[in-house]
Fold each of these.
Amino acid sequence: MNKTVSKVFIAADHRGVGLKLYLIEMLAAAGYMVVNLGVDDPNTPADFPDVAATMAEAMADDTNSRGILICGTGAGIMIAANRYRHLRASRCSTPNQARDDRFHDDINVLALAADDIDIEVAFLTAQTFLESPFDNIERRIRRIEKIS
């Protein structure tokens, strides 16, 4: 486990509830401090921009935290999360992609597509996202500063 991650915030719209609940269970069992930001009822519609706003608020003062956002496609929630300057979200569908996006772009939010990803692959992708380092070199830092 990556000891530099203080908390893992996780949130989903109604389409991502099942995957979110599975990931909470698996990540907690792996030793992560997981904070559930909702929603928890798949029968209550939730708009992904509101879910992303909840994540942005939760992560505003905790630079060592990471976030996992889930919606049906993963794209909408990623776009909504990237509206916030302190969030860098990427929709990843494989562990390799999560590793590369952490290494190159220091993503701090993983977006997952509940409709398109196998739950075991989602867990491995989330775990890789949480355990992968950022390649903290000048050119990567410069690029991130330009978008922040």
Amino acid sequence: MQKQGLELKQTQRLSPLQIQTIKLIELPVQELEQKIRSELEENPVLDDTPDPDKQQDDDTPKDVSIDEIKDDGDIPAYKTRVNNWGKDPRPEYNTFSVKESFTQSLMEQLGFRNLSNRDFSIGAFIIGSLDGDGYLRRDIESLVDDMAFRAGVEVTEPEVERMLGVIQEFDPAGVGARDLRECLLLQLRAKTQTEDVRDAERILSEQFGEFTNRHFAKVMSRLNIDEDRLKAAITCITRLNPAPGGQMDDSFDDQAQQIVPDFVLEEHEGQLSFTMPRFNIPELRVNKKYSDLMASARNTDDKSSKEAASFIRQKIDSAKWFIEALKQRQNTLQRTMQAILDFQHDYFLDGDEANLKPMVLKDIAEITGFDISTISRVVNSKYIETHFGIFPLKYFFSEGMENNEGEEVSTRELKKALQECVDAEDKKKPLTDEQLVVEMGKRGYKVARRTIAKYRGQLGIPLARWRKEL
């Protein structure tokens, strides 16, 4: 039997200003520039020409949390101007390139081939089915079925096999492989065919099982090669890339090929500070002539004038919200970056990862008073330029564990120590995960074997038997 009843729920609705602020906070500085240009084109009330009557205190952002913003309708006049970033109106600024999108690169190579529309569609579908590391882990039959159901294209297995062969000729070598063996063989076949390369290809083609199990004596006997040739072939194999898709990065938008730092770290006699370069972001204000037009239109009974006044009012409100949202974005980014800088002060002095403290979003949220979701939006796609490199803000966040003295250390410090243990091991008798636990313990880190396995995988360190050398 169903029961009916009334239930009261209290929900919080975001104001237009809060929504606008949240959207602006998420944007990196380049996209912010585009957004401002778009707003200037769409809203005639917004003005980016210098204001001769600008008040001096407009340079200081209002210290308000976006969680406290109230949509109070009329915003005071001092809020209708914003001086966004720094004193230099248009400085030269540094950029650094991010890796080209993996999918984008493959699609460009596909476009260079002289293909029919049908073959291009098949190739594009295969590229879209590749995993992030460049492998095709789905069988051909499944791709044929998927193309029929999802793309509405009836194809045959030989057609898909043929186009997969085309994609396997693309850069990076090894892309489109269905397993590790095929991936390595594709890379060897793309190399100049020296004796080392031919030996390596024979090892993978004919003795893959014995090779992976480190049965080197059997490999030498069956292929009739000596130890020197085996070592040279193994060196050739170990230099191959087991994850060709990892050379490129799909974590950024395909069109965003350059990153502009949102913050620039400055150090002077041990004192740390940062600036927020203004770049091409103009100073915005509400054009006073539109306020005068609206005031004059209100004093008339003409219907068309009233409609014009209503339109101008909407545009003025929109402009005020946008200007205030920009102020709140600047304030939020400044307070968040300052909190990160204070929290990781020792690290920012010299960039030594050993000084990077465990830090999660909640830590910075508690310091700033912002919501965790706000901190997450600030951290996403924002970068800082330091004297030891350019880093995404996400780099400074990591979970922590305790060392033998009960002090909390970051996972990044643990990974660094693990890498040092592996680098220092005897390659003829590489350390197992259990032995790495002991070695980490000698360095003062309490780490479980499963944690070693997890970090080893994240660092791309293979199992002990794969690290063994002759």
